[in-house]
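Re: the request from the purification team.
They wanted to know what the chain is likely to look like in 3D before they choose a buffer screen. I agreed to run a prediction and write the result into the notebook, where they can find it.
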Amino acid sequence: MEIDQVETFLAVVTYGGFHRAAEMLHVSQPAVSGRIRALEESLGVSLFTRGRATPTLSPAGKALRPHAEQILRTVAMARQAVHELQPLTAGALRIAASLSVCTYLMPEVMESYKAANPKVMVHLRSGNSMQVLKMVLDGEADIGVARSLNHPEVETMTLRDDPLILVGDPAHPMAGNRHAHLEEVEAWPLIFYDRGSSDWTLTQGLFRRAGLLPNVVLEVETIEAAKRMVERKLGFSFLPQIALTQELRQGKLVSIEILDAEPLSRNLDVIHPRHRALAKEAQDLLNLLRTAAATALAQGKSPAQHPSETA
């Protein structure tokens, strides 16, 4: 049993097929098939049920999966332990993060980080979640921070939940009651942003599953633009909690609870490659990200409950 065989096994499981696993691992499909075959031969079992469009785990494959995940975690920890014995020198830190993370989380983190690591050159690049993942996989970034990042070749740690929250200006005529049914919200003036993004898809799906058509009065490119439109009472918008910390705490915006719909929840994740141990510079950043994410989660709530919510 070899490490690349274990990684390939988990890639097929994660992405639901040999072809997709090959794309994500940047190898050919025959190479993926060969690794799986070699792993099965070394174990003397079949790990997948063949003959279907999407391969499914056999009983042996299901039994192997948690152990395979543990193997990769152990390998990553071993690399890290060896790396920590090497002499430390101030160098460069490359970070890939989503635009919302760059805008609302990283400034505070960078202030603390640069104070503690003044000689480290930091390179911060932004992109959507898939672009962040690609930069880490391609070795262009040491750490990635975005939403819902999972891949067999990276370690993923969830920093916090980052739900999408329906918000409006407290002086807007429709914002008087801090809760509503989805059918009511359908008719409200809604502001959407970044068409085709995961946020846009999640919000559209909320209405589509209920057979409703949202009243979209504005579409803009960025979260910040959508927030500014809401502040001018032009409508309501589903925005990430991470982008609303100051506005909700200061009462500039209010959140609206949708009584008959599931919350639009996502994870804010940080990733780093399994094959490359984290340098001390990256470990310091990771610790600051944990602290900043926990602080933002505690602060990103409305300062007080509306009386109608306590009735």
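For the purification team: Residues 300-311 have pLDDT under 50 and may be disordered.
Please add any questions underneath this entry.
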